[in-house]
Amino acid sequence: MSNLPHERYMRRAIELAANTPNLPFGAVIASQESGEIVAEGWNRSSLNPTWHGEIDAINSLAQIRAVIEPNHLVLYTTAEPCPMCQGAILWTGIGTVVYGTSIRTLQKQGWRQIDIPAAEVIRRSPTWQCTLIAGILEKECDALFVAASKGTWRK
Fold first, then answer.
1. Going by C-beta distance under 8 Å and a sequence separation of 6 or more, which residues neighbour residue 153?
2. Is 54 a catalytic residue?
């Protein structure tokens, strides 16, 4: 398990979510060993429906790192990864995912989500290891999605 200051990295993911306030999915990948942020991303699904925040961060990581030691990486994201993103995280080998709000909370707020939690994707992928840490800055992340669904992010 990661001993990084989770709130610090989640705050950065929240900042990145401001790049698309109507789809506030921001993501940060940090090294457990150095604490360095090695990649960042945000939702760009207006360009490509599969370009979620986690996918953007993973693609950035792949472009800037010749050698990835993925099990020493932690991915921070404002919302629980969808099944597509959690699958990509597993394929990448990232060892820990820290998220703010949950898929269930997003569904209750009216967000369209595939009803398969990240833990279920991991459970059904027994050859991969990935630790999930939920609820970091959950209220702040929830507020992003409430504001986006109400259109109040425009101030």
1. 21, 22, 24, 144, 147
2. yes
